[in-house]
Amino acid sequence: MEKINITINNMPIEVEKGLTVLEAAKLAGIHIPTLCHLKDVNNSSSCRVCLVDTGTKLVTSCTLVAEEGMAIQTNTPKVRNARKTVVELILSNHKMECPVCSRNDNCELQAVARDLNIKEVRYQGAKLQAPIDQSSPSIIRDTEKCILCGRCVNTCSEIQTVHAIDFINRGFDTVIAPAYGKMLDESMCINCGQCILACPVGALREKDNTDDVWHELANPNKFVVVQTAPATRVALGEEFGLPIGTNVKGKMVAALRKIGFDKVFDTDFAADLTIMEEGTELIKRLEQGENLPLMTSCCPGWIKFMEHQYPEMLNHLSTCKSPHEMEGALIKSYFAKQMDIDPEKIVVVSIMPCTAKKFESVREELSKEHLQDVDYVLTTRELAQMIKEAGVNFISLEDESFDNPFGEGTGASVIFGATGGVTEAALRTVYELVSGKELADVSFQDVRGLEGVKEATIELPNGPTINTAVIHGLGNARKVLEEIKSGKKDYQFIEVMACPGGCINGGGQPIVKADIRDKIDIKVERSKALYQDDQSLAIRKSHENPEIKKIYEDFLLYPNSHISHELLHTHYMERSRV
């Protein structure tokens, strides 16, 4: 790679040709404040906060490409005064309710204002006024807090290719909103929440259901059950100052009991159940040669994307409900009967890394006899808030175990939280069920990692060859779907997770502060923790889970039985493309 020489603050630096001044400064340990810049997502220079002095003029460093001999100053009075002015102007049109904002103490605007030593806003005038959009069951949009950085727009359009939001109007009236100023629930929004992670302020946040859950917990006539997704256990600790990727499963269970839940279950159980149902479905489709490739159905953001964008391919989706919906259905049927509890009195709460699960939980087709399978979904962030509100000292908690009958998962279910995990779990089971042979090594390395599209070919002894694709990020999914439609690609099994990295980077996970985000790849660290958990477990294949065997013997009969189809499978619908 060709190198060039520049100076920043009179310090000679050798950098790769093609880097921006912002990138070069970071490599040299020089901090330049930013708001609109988001690596690999947004580089629009719209906020003007990253100004530097070239000797002749002030230029935004996030778009200024370093050139041989360039001399840059980042800390002159002229630069500091310009940055302060820019931030004050942003603040002059910002709803400043910091103490009650969801991003208080983790707001990039707040941090930049503090670092620039802004103690007052000298500019006063009219402020944009707009109602808060609470139409979506997943995401709240507060336009009065928006700083028009465009990070959410680029995330939605470039990473997810959904295009649910964009800049509309002009001048002072410019806002970010769905087309024609519609509400989010009228748009093609898939509820993934990646816009929330991208937003530097509190203009986007998840719809808070903690008060609803507190209300249910206080009702003596309700039996309140909670279940937790695998990705939550390697992220929750971050909300309490633990290193990224720390596995806090035992502490999380203990905290949930202290909060007051009557039973604490593990969604990992239902992930194993999903593999039994989906694996059997795959085997049947391979035998019949119909509706291939089979596409996973665990991710509700991906499902809604298909319903809007590719309704003609809905028959390729697995009919399996997502794991937490399966578990909710079993809690209100199998468990209710076992415990002799009226299903009407059972409240199922899911702790998920995902904002799209909130939308999923209110879908009419995920209910039976007017009872939703899952009553409330809380994100990892919301659970952390409840733990703090309850006064629980999370760090000091002793580890506790999940309750049965839905408390035992395998290594296969743990890795559901990482991209490629569902495919690897399915292959572990499908291989042995089809071939009748035991796998010498249950790790399928080809489907691991953070490449946007991963491909693997699995040759089953005494069975067919399975060409698989593992995809995360819906922009990548769109490319693969177009290749399938054009006949360029031929797969039998496809896993898609809407969020880059999979559930470990879901829209409901802790929002990592900017200074940490620039140093650590959170997707790598959280994934690593899940694979370590898988490695440590005695049982690593879904079909060997004793609790899974028991529920089929006692209740479901066999995978894809009529009872399974009644409780654990669903259907999809075409949605508007406008």
What is the number of domains?
3
Structural class: alpha/beta
- Radius of gyration equals 25 Å
Give the biggest sheet.
4 strands, parallel
DSSP strand count:
19
Query: Mean of residue pLDDT?
Result: 95
Strand order of the largest sheet: 11-10-13-16
Assign a percent range to the helix content: 25-40%
N-C termini distance: 45 Å
Q: What's the total helix number? A: 19
Oligomer: single chain
Low-confidence stretches: none
Proportion in β-strands: 5-15%
Examine the secondary-structure arrangement and name the CATH architecture of the largest domain: 3-Layer(aba) Sandwich
Overall 3D form:
globular
CATH T-level topology of the largest domain: Rossmann fold
CATH class of the largest domain: Alpha Beta
Structure at a glance:
By secondary structure, the protein is of the alpha/beta class. It is built from 19 helices and 19 strands.
Walk me through this protein's architecture.
The protein has 19 helices and 19 strands. It is an alpha/beta fold and 578 residues long. It folds into 3 domains: 87 residues, Roll (Ubiquitin-like (UB roll)), CATH 3.10.20; 69 residues, Alpha-Beta Plaits (2-Layer Sandwich), CATH 3.30.70; 358 residues, 3-Layer(aba) Sandwich (Rossmann fold).
List keywords for this structure.
4-stranded mixed sheet; Ubiquitin-like (UB roll); 19 helices; single chain; 578 residues; alpha/beta; Rossmann fold; 3 domains; Alpha-Beta Plaits; 4-stranded parallel sheet; 14% strand
SSE inventory with pairings:
Blueprint: E1 3-8, E2 11-16, H1 21-27, E3 51-53, E4 58-60, E5 71-72, H2 77-92, H3 108-115, E6 139-141, H4 151-159, E7 166-168, E8 175-177, H5 194-198, E9 204-206, H6 210-217, E10 223-228, H7 249-259, E11 263-266, H8 267-288, E12 294-295, H9 300-309, H10 323-339, E13 346-352, H11 356-361, E14 367-368, E15 371-372, E16 376-379, H12 380-389, H13 411-414, H14 421-435, E17 453-459, E18 465-472, H15 474-485, E19 493-497, H16 514-517, H17 522-536, H18 546-556, H19 562-568
Parallel strand pairs: 1-5, 10-11, 10-13, 12-19, 13-16, 18-19
Antiparallel strand pairs: 1-2, 3-4, 6-9, 7-8, 14-15, 17-18
